[in-house]
Amino acid sequence: MNNEIVIKTDKLTKEFGDFIAANDLTFEVYKGEIFGFLGANGAGKTTAMKMLIGISKPSSGDANIAGFDVYKDTENIKRSIGYMSQKFSLYEDLTVKENLMLFGGIYALSDKVIKSKTEELLEKLGLQNDANKLVGSLPLGWKQKLAFSTAIFHTPKIVFLDEPTGGVDPITRRQFWDMIYEAAHNGITVFVTTHYMDEAEYCDRVSIMVDGVIKALDSPAELKKQFNAKSMDDVFLMLARSAKRGD
Amino acid sequence: MKQLLTFVKKEFHHILRDKRSMLVLLGLPIVQLLIFGFAITTETRNCNIAILDNSKDEATQNIITRIESSTYFDIYETLYSNDQIEKAFKTGRIKLAIVFQPNFQNDLLHTNKAQMQIITDASDPNQANTLANYVSAIVREYQQELNQNKDLPYTIKTEIRMLYNPQLKGEYSSVPGVMGMILLLISAMMTSISIVKEKELGTMEVLLVSPMKPAIVIASKVIPYFIVSLVNVVTILLISNFVFGIPIQGSFILLSFITIIYIICALSLGILISTLTSSQQAAMIISLMGLMLPVVMLSGYAFPVANMPLILQIISNIVPAKWYIIMVKDVMIKGIGLSEIWKELIIILGMTTFFLLVSIKRFKVRLQ
Q1: In this model, does residue A23 exceed pLDDT 60?
Q2: Which of A230, B242, B293, B330 pairs with B323 at a CA distance of 20 to 30 A?
Q3: Is residue A112 exposed (0-12), middle (13-18) or buried (19+ Cβ within 10 Å)?
Q4: Is B212 at the interface with chain A, CB within 8 A?
Q5: Tell me, what DSSP letter sits at residue B111?
Q6: In which region does residue B180 sit, left (phi positive, over 0), alpha (psi from -120 to 50) or beta (all else)?
Q7: What is the residue extent of each domain of chain B?
Q8: What burial class does residue A113 get, using C-beta atoms within 10 Å of its C-beta: 0-12 exposed, 13-18 middle, 19+ buried?
Q9: Which CATH number describes the domain made up of B47-146?
Q10: What is the pTM of this model?
Q11: Looking at residue B53, what is its pLDDT?
Q12: Longest CA–CA separation in chain B, Å
């Protein structure tokens, strides 16, 4: 990890009428870091993330993603990031290969690059024999891994993962996190929301959002020390107890 | 451009791999056209009737023979008293009864005032009317023959010519109607469903986060359905020509041109529907209820608009199919040129622009 800043927000706020979904968010994320974005349901994680990936305009404040301004440069931001949504977002009625071709095409990679990358990826995932199978016929764990691989297929600077391991068994989750480590090792910054607290321990740094506000931000070790807690679970419960918004 | 091609290919994969929607897309038009062409016809043939002949003379026999030999009627039963008439109707076996008064021939020859009564089952008013007209026509014909050798003072002889559709074939109006309905339904419903499907699955979000321009996403949704619609137009025209024997009187190029404009209109309506909802079911219901019903009821294809209450006549103007069906009838059946249909064409173009502008506006609002 180095000190190059890839995400920088300053008092980023999103209001829906009287409701302040995200309030005065100020934080920085460094290159190659795995940044955990924690919060209970309704805390404003998704709203914050949507502003960062350029599909929701902030009400006030500033944010800079991969060197581009969220107000003026959304097109460049979109080219520099990858995104994996909460819902499984590959096309189930296309084959593994066709999905990869499609997403390679979206990011304007050349056919040659797409081809070599596809082969490399299939080998890594052990999916060579399933390349022409419909994605819908794969087991959920494989789908999630494939979705993550697709999100970083164009080697973005930052990849945003919105609760990527929902509904996945513990072994696959572990494998999934190995893939995240590998991506971070290759210099891709990982911005991940989750509500599994054991996953929070895997992050380099985490922020905990309560009622639209960032209540804590540090490495898991520091946070545990600061709150005198044994696990991230305890830290989270201590902070989340004060929450007024529920589901 | 390459992005667009990749995406159009993807859309074709979606369509071709979903056998059920393929069947709907390509089979429905054929089935609809055949049903509306063959089964649903306003013509009546071999209708069961009853006859009560209180006179039993040469004249009544003559008329009865003529009625019997026409293709419209089969004499189902012969009645002997007035109270049998209503019974016969109530059992539902007959649609029409003819009653000759006593002394029919006598009256006809001597007082010039012979009387016969035509009773019809008017629970279906249109049919009742048609049947009564058929009987009157047969009687009139007989009367004319009787008077053949006499010079009657003051007779007006009407001569009827049915222009454009001399055989009065029902298919002449069902082909344009089915085209107007099918193209609108398939284009609008299928595009709206396929766009909304991506919203529902969450893939739309991923596309919005990608550098893909929303316009390209939408265009790539629309192009495959445009092509499918063209295939349907060709099928419909082939069936109408070879199965129903309806030739294209006017310019084929003009017919294609207005059809392409109409398809674009329907596609933009589909895009608009997709911005109104985010569930596939809602999109389907809006398309079916919101489009099919007005098209069938108000486009003038099943029921004449001119006979409707004023308020419905006004509403019918916002149904795109109404204007398209007028144009198709004009070009295909009457053989009229662009100079006569430009007004309808402008209305369709105006509607298309409106649908697209509203969609763009709504699409932007959603991103805020």
Answers
A1: yes
A2: B242
A3: exposed
A4: yes
A5: I
A6: alpha
A7: 2-40+169-367, 47-146
A8: middle
A9: 3.40.1710.10
A10: 0.80
A11: 92
A12: 95
C-beta of residue B112 within 8 angstroms of C-beta of residue B65 = no
Q: Are strands A205-210 and A81-84 parallel, antiparallel or unpaired?
A: unpaired
Residue A80 near chain B (CB below 8 Å): no
Q: How confident is the model at residue B368 (pLDDT cuts 50, 70, 90)?
A: very low
CB contact A57 to B (< 8 Å): yes
> What single string gives the DSSP state of each residue in A104-154?
HHHTT--HHHHHHHHHHHHHHHT-GGGTTSBGGGS-HHHHHHHHHHHHTTT
Q: What is the pLDDT of residues B181-197, one digit of tens each?
A: 889 988 999 899 999 99
Distance CA B230, CA B223 (A): 11
pLDDT over 60 (residue B116):
yes
Please report the pLDDT score of residue B151 as a whole number: 65
Tell me how crowded residue B334 is: count the other CB atoms within 10 A of its CB.
13
SS3 A61: strand
Burial readout B140-177 (b: 16 or more C-beta within 10 A, e: otherwise): eebeeeeeeeeeeeeeeeeeeeeeeeeeebbbbbbbbb
User: Number of C-alpha atoms within 13 angstroms, CB side, residue B296?
Assistant: 8
Q: Is the pLDDT of residue B223 over 90?
A: yes
Q: Do A93 and B18 touch (CB under 8 A)?
A: yes
Contact A151, A179 (CB under 8 A): no
Question: Searching chain A, which residue's CA lies closest to the CA of residue B9?
Answer: A102
Q: What is the pLDDT of residue B153?
A: 66
Most confident option among B19-33, B151-165, B296-310:
B19-33
* Range list of H helices, chain B: 2-17, 19-34, 58-69, 83-90, 104-106, 125-146, 171-201, 203-209, 214-242, 252-276, 280-287, 293-298, 310-316, 320-328, 338-367
Which residues of chain A make contact with B2, given a CB cutoff of 8 A? 105, 108
Q: Would the pLDDT of B41 be above 70? A: no
Residue-wise pLDDT tens digits, B148-184: 766 666 767 778 787 887 777 777 878 888 889 889 9
Instruction: Work out the pLDDT band at A195, boundaries 50, 70, 90.
Output: confident
CA–CA gap between residue A70 and residue A51 (Å, rounded): 8
- To the nearest 10°, report the CA torsion of A143, A144, A148, A151: 60
* Superfamily per CATH, domain A5-240: P-loop containing nucleotide triphosphate hydrolases (3.40.50.300)
CA closest to B5 among chain A residues: A105
Distance of CA B288 to the CA centre of its chain: 17
Inter-chain touch B209–A89, beta carbons under 8 Å:
no
Distance CA B320, CA A68 (A): 46
Ramachandran class of A44: left when φ > 0, alpha when ψ lies in -120 to 50, beta otherwise: left
Composition of chain A by helix, strand, coil, percent to 5: 40, 25, 35
Domain limits of chain A? 5-240
> Has residue A1 got a pLDDT over 70?
no
Across chain A, mean pLDDT equals 90
Question: Which residue matches tokens 């009853």?
Answer: B50
Q: Percent of chain B having pLDDT more than 90?
A: 33
Q: Which of B254, B72, B69, B248 is nearest to B172 (CA)?
A: B248
B13 reaches A (C-beta below 8 A): yes
Q: Identify the band that residue B25 occupies on the pLDDT scale cut at 50, 70 and 90.
A: confident
pLDDT at A118: 94
Q: At what angle do helices A96-106 and B2-17 cross, to 10 degrees?
A: 150
